[in-house]
Design goal:
single chain, mainly alpha, two-stranded antiparallel sheet, two-stranded antiparallel ribbon, globular, binds zinc ion
């Protein structure tokens, strides 16, 4: 699970934001929670029935796509294509956030409709370290979220990924035992099924090998001293043109590898390889020769 940038009014189209705000105001004007929840549901189901709604949500979707992680990946699982507009805080429980842009992200269908659904947890009482799972269509007893909101905090600041087992865990420094942060991490892992979806866990483990291979190729290409070595470093693909200067060919191949890294699923694995003390010595040496590939510090602890 990766962080997303905060919604920036300067980059979001005014017309789309105004459209969302107008609908939200109608929901907020309803007298009680039940009416607000019903209104949010009906407004959501009919959001693209008018031409104005269709145009606004085409812009919303486009904007969210640009903000999604990697090559259009779901920020929750980091594996599948991000296709669905997902409410971080479910609209059935938080109708006041149903048309709030900062509550949206693009998630994959599996995460959205197979795991997260309307699930959420809050701290009760607010400010405590005791979290409570929310029941369906019940007004939450608190607005103090016990779930990592990827637009408000960096999941990788609170979580660690053990790239050998492929499992996420609470960061011992930023989310120690008994803390609110640890409870947030545990709820997030459980609600999204981050550690119980076998295919996901296996793919994280396999991602290590892919990143390792790309890193090794990158360093070998960088260190090649002639066209023959360059050809060997790239495994004969893409083909090397001996008539083109070595440095030019090198730059072409290095940018190919950088593009491949940017397209890989499970970018959190890449972050962990760079920041984990358990990364093997050989890989550390390669990393030392390819410092420019480091995703840190942007994705390590501090929120971008
Ligand atoms: Zn997903």
């Amino acid at each position: 699970m990766l962080p997303l940038t905060k919604i920036d009014a300067a980059t979001w189209p005014d017309s789309a934001l105004q459209h969302l705000q107008a609908i939200q105001a109608e929901i907020d004007a309803c007298a009680d929670f039940d009416l607000r929840a019903k209104k949010a549901d009906s407004k959501w189901n009919s959001k693209t029935r008018s031409q104005a709604g269709e145009q606004a949500f085409a812009k919303v979707r486009e904007q969210l796509k640009q903000e999604s992680v990697g090559a259009g990946l779901c920020c929750y699982c980091e594996q599948n294509e991000a296709t669905d507009i997902e409410h971080v805080l479910p609209k059935s429980l938080f109708p006041g956030q149903a048309f709030a842009a900062h509550n949206y992200l693009l998630a994959c269908k599996t995460c959205n409709t197979g795991h997260k659904l309307d699930k959420m947890a809050v701290f009760v009482p607010s400010g405590s370290a005791v979290s409570q799972s929310l029941g369906r269509q019940e007004e939450p007893a608190s607005q103090d979220m016990a779930f990592i909101h990827p637009r408000k905090e960096n999941p990788l600041a609170l979580m660690l990924l053990d790239w050998k087992t492929g499992l996420f865990a609470a960061h011992p420094k930023t989310a120690p035992a008994g803390s609110r942060e640890k409870q947030k991490v545990l709820n997030t892992i459980e609600i999204l099924g981050l550690n119980t979806r076998d295919a996901l866990v296996n793919c994280r483990q396999n991602a290590v090998k892919d990143y390792q291979r790309l890193l090794r190729e990158y360093v070998n290409i960088k260190q090649a001293t002639n066209h023959k070595e360059l050809d060997e470093a790239s495994g004969g693909h893409p083909e090397i043109d001996p008539s083109v200067p070595l440095a030019t060919e090198q730059q072409r191949l290095l940018s190919c590898i950088r593009a491949q890294i940017a397209r890989q699923p499970h970018p959190a694995v890449w972050v962990e390889i760079w920041r984990s003390p358990a990364t093997p010595k050989k890989m550390r040496e390669w990393m030392g020769d390819a410092q420019e590939l480091s995703p840190l510090p942007g994705l390590s602890i501090t929120f971008k």
